[in-house]
Amino acid sequence: MNFEIKNNIISAKGDVAVKAAQLFAEELKMRTGKSFEIGEESEASFFFEISAPSDCESFSISEKCGGLLFSAHRLRGLIYAYSMFLRKAVFTDGKAELVKDICGEYSPEMPVRGHQIGYRDANNTYDLWDAQQYRRYFLDIMAFGANIYEGIPGGEDEKNSFMAMSGNEMLAVTSAICKELDLDMCSWHPEEKSRDDETAVRLAVEAYSVLPKLDCLFVPGGDPGDLMPHELFERCRKIKEAVKKYHPNLKMWISAQAPHEYEDWGEKFAEEIKKCPDFLEGIIFGPNHAMTLPELRECVPQKYPIRFYPDVTHNVRSEYPVHFEENDWSNVFASTLSRESINPRPLEYKHLHDITKEYVCGSVSYSDGINDDVNKIIFSASDFDSSCTAEEALEDYSRMYLWEIDAKNFAKCILNLEENWVGHPAQNEGIEKTLSALQKIGEDTPEVNENYRYIMCLFRAECDALVRRRFIFETDLVEKAKEKIFAGDVDGAKEILSKDFDCEYKKLREKIDAHGADLNRLIGMQLDVANYFGKSWERGCTLETIDRPVTDRAYLLNAIESGLDAEKIKKLIERNCVNDGEVYFSFALDGVNKLTPQVGEFYMDFEGDSPKNDGTVPMSLLNLYDHYSLRFDFDVEANKNYILEVTYFNRKFKENAVDFCVNVNGKELYHGVPYSEEIDEEMKALLPAGYIPAVYKIPAEIINDGKISALIEEPTRGFLVSEFRIIKGE
Question: What is the pTM of this model?
Answer without folding.
Answer: 0.96
